[in-house]
Each structure stands twice: as C-alpha cells, then as structure tokens.
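Researcher: Structure for this, please.
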Amino acid sequence: MSTRPAINPNLIDTATPPIPEAQAWARAYDGAAGPLIDLSQAVPGYPPHAEFLEHLSRNAGEAATASYGPIEGDTALRQAYAEHVSSLYGGPVDWRDVAITTGCNQAFFIAALATAKAGDSILLPSPWYFNHKMALDMLGIEARALACPPESGFVPDVESAAELIDATTRAIVLVTPNNPTGAVYPPQTIETFARLCRERGLFLILDETYRDFIAERPHDLIASGDYANTLIYLYSFSKSYCIPGHRLGALVASQTAQTQIGKILDTLQICAPRAAQGPVAWAIDGLADWREANRQEIARRTDAFRTAFQGLNGWKVDSMGAYFAFLRHPFPGRPAAAVAKELVERAGVLCLPGPYFGPGQEGHMRVAFANAGVEQLRALRERFSRFPG
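Model: Predicted structure, token format:
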C-alpha cells in the first residue's frame, strides 16, 4: 500500500495569492457603467520611456546578457544605484553593499531568510502587504502583527513595537510609503525604530518600493553613517521605470550581511535577469527628469482621487500616499469582499478588500489609484455615488 507524500505544512498554511480572486470578479462586469477601471494590482499606468525601451532592446539582443552574470548583480547597476542612494540620502553607500534581486518581493524573502530562522519572529506592520506575510509563513517565521491603527494615520508606534519584542524576535519591518494604506512614515518615526533596533540587537528591514513618488527625503539613516549597523534597505525598480515584468529590485546591507546574503542569491536566482540591468544603470541618471515628471503626475492623480471622494455618500479616504489609498466603505457589518465584488460587477471599479491585508480590515478597501489617469479618477465620483444604485 502506497502512502501519498506530504506537502510542506508551512506552505499549506500560507494564504493563496489574493489578486487573481479579485480579478476574476471583473469577468462578471457587463460594461454598463463604462470601461472597467482596474485599481487592484499596483502597476504603472503609463509605459516605459521610449529611449529606455531602445536600450533594453539592444541589450536583450546581446549574447552576453544571455549568460550568467555576477551573483550580486551587474557591477554597473550596483555602482549606479549606490551612487544614486548616496546622493539621495546624503551619506555614502559602497556599491559592494548593494545586491540586485529578482524584484523587491525576492529582496524581502532574502532579508527574512537572512535574519531569522523557523521559530523566530519578525514584527510586521498590520495591515500588511500580503506577500510579506506569505513569505514569513512559508519560512516558518512568526509574523508578529505591529498594529498601525487608523487613528494614528496607519503609522506604527515604537512603544507598541518594544512591547512585542521577545527572545525570538530578529527584525522589525517598516514599509513606507506603505502598501496597502499609502501612509508615509515621518522621518523621526523611522529613525526612532532604527534606534530601537540598535538597542535590542535587531535588524530594521525597510521597504521603500514607492520611494520615488514622494518629494521629501524619507529619513536620515544613511546620512547618519550608521545604516550598516542595523539597516537592510529594500527597493524596486519596477514602479519607477515601469518594468514590473523584468523583475529587478535592490537590497542594501552591510558587507558582513552581504557575505551571507550571497549564499541565498546564488541558491534562489544565481543572478537577477540581465537584459534590463544595463538599461536601468543608464536610466538612473539618464531618466531623472522623466522620473520626476512621473512623480508629479502621480501627485495630480492623488489630488484627483482625494477630490473625487470628498463628501461622497459616506465613503472616506482614511489614508493615502504614493500609489495607494485605504478607503473606508459606508456599509457597516458587510464583508469588504462582498462590497468589492458588487462594486466591480455594478460600477466597473475593481479594488481589493481590506482583509486581504490582514485581520480587522473589513471596513476598508485598498485602491491602487496610481494605475488610472486623472480623468478616470474623476469619473470615480459618479460611479461610487450611484453604488449601490
């Protein structure tokens, strides 16, 4: 008698990716309210720069980019990104402290694996980005919820974090601008968390995927010259350069940490996809004005979205910034998934239910407003005002 092999229980206990479920609801929409407005998955609502695509086409056609590259990423991109981060944050970052990853999701997975083992805990802001929670669950690492309540603007509190730390805790995660809430953490908040991590011997895993869509410098951790002691800094090239399909992210950490991280990189990816690495190295300086113009465009979309929901039938923007808004729906007691499903079926607007981002979020929906143009966002007022009509 044969026995069926068992799948890793940690994987079985990990949630299923939620976006496909929500996107399936859109298939029931009949188009009556106008073209579907998809505000579910955060993707740039405009194409890559034409000159970038030319660089990419040439680079992809080179035989060299079809070969393995350095484990930590092509040197030109690591150097260009280190110079950019040094200039942006006002403190030196050595290019050898930079690793190029297959997207920022992988950068987070690597950071978690580098700092904690099964049975350890990592503090994760709640509501959380669901792929962060999924990664920790797969690894058998406890995702200890660090509450970010609406009354504090969805910004975490360092005193609350301190109370959650015990002998199993290895790191604290901060995500700013935040996914899903859009909250932008004040610099002093980030610096206070870094101080707590230094005092307790923890890593601070700081995800700034949407950094380029805010005007101000997010913090002074690098300028202080102390980032190497505690900081693991994550970034995505996907949103800023409109290349999510090319899967490029970056991880900055001390060379001591990078020595160990290199083992993970070699095991997971051998090297990040190479065709886009050269073009991104050029674009960091070559498309600086274009990135700034995109930031200004996202700011216009932010204003358009905020205006569309002012005084609108009980809908309330509880938090927003960079790419996202956390929208409170006016139907107490109704599951957010039911509201989101009916909204797309009847009004042609697809958002993600709050519980996709953790417990206690039934009153909210995440809106990736940066996906849509200003006119589409203005049209939301009419569609929401008639729902449920």
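Researcher: Any notable elements?
Model: The longest strand covers residues 169-175. The chain has 15 helices and 13 strands.
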